[in-house]
Amino acid sequence: MKSVVAILAFFFSTLKLPAHDSARLNVTAHPIRFGVYDFEQVLTKTSKFGTEHIFVSWKDYKNGSLTNQLNVIRSRGRVPLVTIEPWGSSLEETISGSKDGVIRQMATEVSEFRDPVTIRFMHECENGSGRYPWACRDSGHFIAAFRHFVTRFRTVAENAKFMWSPIADPGCERYYPGSEYVDEIGLSLYSFPEADLKYHGHVRSFKEQMDQKYNRVRRYDKPIVIAEFGIAGSDDAKISYLSEVLSELPKYPLVTTLVFFVAKDTPGAWGQGISTPRWSLGTGELALLH
User: Fold this and answer.
1) Each residue of 47-59: b (16+ CB within 10 Å) or e?
2) CA distance 21 to 27
3) Dihedral through CA 166, CA 172, CA 178, CA 180, nearest 10?
4) Which of 22, 179, 212, 269 has its CA 20 to 30 A from that of 278?
């Protein structure tokens, strides 16, 4: 009997589990929270969402506008996730301090709101399509700009948390600003069969995408939010895919929140010859959220 026990002990000691499964052995399963970016304001009365995501460009920012949006989110019983996009400026301008005025004003409005606010700055930093001017090959400049922003913002708004939010594509690790500047990690994950067939040769499952993304960022041991999530396709296909997502998510113990992106995408964002998807949530998908 002792020899059998010894053999079994040796077997389990050498068994290599997937990274997220091995982590799951030591983490109690937790319910996933849901959030939404609702551009057309069609889901404002839905009680299934605890987080509301908004995008703010500091190029078009006006004093008081962020306060108004935060108060509306609170009136719905939700907590804010605010993506700040530095349109109209370069990384060098952020690093030099020439944008400290707008940073300070935004931070003041967050501070006066008092409740917790998560700030997602310069998202999808490794996006090589040219879509975002802050998504550059110079990861050192990105890191310096991110750190400067967080340092300035934090001195004013103690209730702010900061999210580093890559797509989590290969190479995203080069853009990590450091644990001192990051409270949460955000991911972007979309199911778009038309784009999958063009770029990957097959339609990827949620597990295939998530395994790759999760294993690139789990090393930082931060709470993970899927900050942008959308499904394209027929109603039946979307329900089937979301069912897979909800069954698989407990296998990724660092993931706390899934935020749906509900809007028509930017024309041309997925490349030449690819249609522009409209990300939506129907009654069938909503019924799956508990």
Assistant:
1) ebbebbbbebebe
2) 10
3) 20
4) 212
Global pTM reads 0.89
Model confidence at 20, pLDDT cuts 50, 70, 90, reads: very low
Which tokens go with 133?
Answer: 């001017």
Q: Give the span between the Cα atoms of 142 and 96, in whole angstroms.
A: 13
Q: What is the CA radius of gyration of the chain?
A: 20
Whether the Cβ atoms of residue 288 and residue 246 lie closer than 8 Å to each other:
yes
Tell me the three state secondary structure of residue 223.
Answer: coil
Tokens of 150: 């967080």
Contact 242, 34 (CB under 8 A): no
- Whether the CB-CB separation of 261 and 229 falls below 8 Å is answered with yes
Q: How many residues does the chain have?
A: 290
pLDDT one-digit tens code per residue, 26-76: 344 578 999 999 999 999 999 999 999 999 999 989 999 999 999 999 999
- Name residue, tokens 């589990």: 17
| 19-286 CATH | 3.20.20.80
What helix, strand, coil percent values describe the chain, rounded to 5? Answer: 40, 20, 40
